[in-house]
Design goal:
The chain has 8 helices and 2 strands. Helix 3 runs antiparallel to helix 5. A two-stranded antiparallel sheet has the order 1-2. By secondary structure, it is an all-alpha fold. It has helices spanning 2-28, 47-58, 60-80, 85-91, 94-112, 119-146, 151-156, 164-199; strands at 34-35, 44-45. The chain crosses the membrane at residues 12-29, 121-146, 166-191. One of its GO terms (molecular function) is transmembrane transporter activity. InterPro entries: ECF_trnsprt_substrate-spec.
Length: 201
């Protein structure tokens, strides 16, 4: 019994180490985890896919911790290699940078564990959830944080004036659609394959 528990613990640690390594590669190798389409604007990120797959395999609590790791790498990048003023204004703020990532991993884990007949559907929804949660909470927290002092952020987003919430939805909405489609399609493919492999052990 002890050996079985020990093997299971070792397996979980190995999976976590592998996924953290993948996350670090995505975070710090150009155009793997963050793909810049419009210079100066937040990049399209493939990392929600990695978060969703890990959360599907390990559950919501582990997913939240993994989301925190993602948030910390984002915070580090924002201070050391920002790709524009928008990144500086949004992601050098720990609240905006960390909370959406943590929630992304947690909610993706919850959705991935839904008792659906087709597990691949739960994984698909998990991938979409990871992307949408991250984008939605970045937008909402940014709007709340800047409030009436939004002029600098609006200028960085290419607007002299306007409703910050609406501008953020337009600016980040396209990224969210691309990320959600990518994560929703790829997450069930990889998560299903990995789960089948783990079930044989």
């Amino acid at each position: 019994m002890y050996d079985a528990k020990s093997r299971q613990k070792t397996l979980k640690m190995t999976i976590t180490a592998v996924f953290i390594a993948i996350l670090l590669l995505e975070a710090f190798i150009p155009n793997i985890g963050y793909i810049t389409i419009f210079p100066g604007m937040p990049a399209v990120t493939t990392i929600p896919l990695t978060v969703a797959i890990y959360a599907c395999l390990m559950g919501p609590k582990a997913g939240a911790t993994f989301g925190l790791v993602w948030g910390l790498t984002s915070l580090f990048r924002a201070y050391t290699a920002p790709n524009g003023l928008v990144t500086i204004l949004l992601f050098q703020n720990p609240l905006i940078c960390l909370v959406p990532r943590i929630l992304s991993g947690y909610l993706a884990g919850l959705v991935g564990k839904l008792p659906l007949k087709k597990k691949s559907l739960a994984y698909c929804l998990s991938g979409i959830t990871a992307s949408v949660t991250n984008t939605l909470f970045v937008i909402l927290l940014s709007a709340l944080w800047y409030g009436n002092n939004s002029h600098q952020l609006l200028v960085a987003l290419g607007k002299i004036s306007g409703n910050l919430l609406a501008v953020l939805f337009v600016a980040l909405g396209a990224n969210c659609l691309l990320e959600s489609a990518f994560s929703g399609i790829v997450t069930p493919v990889i998560a299903s394959a990995v789960n089948k492999r783990l079930a044989r052990r």
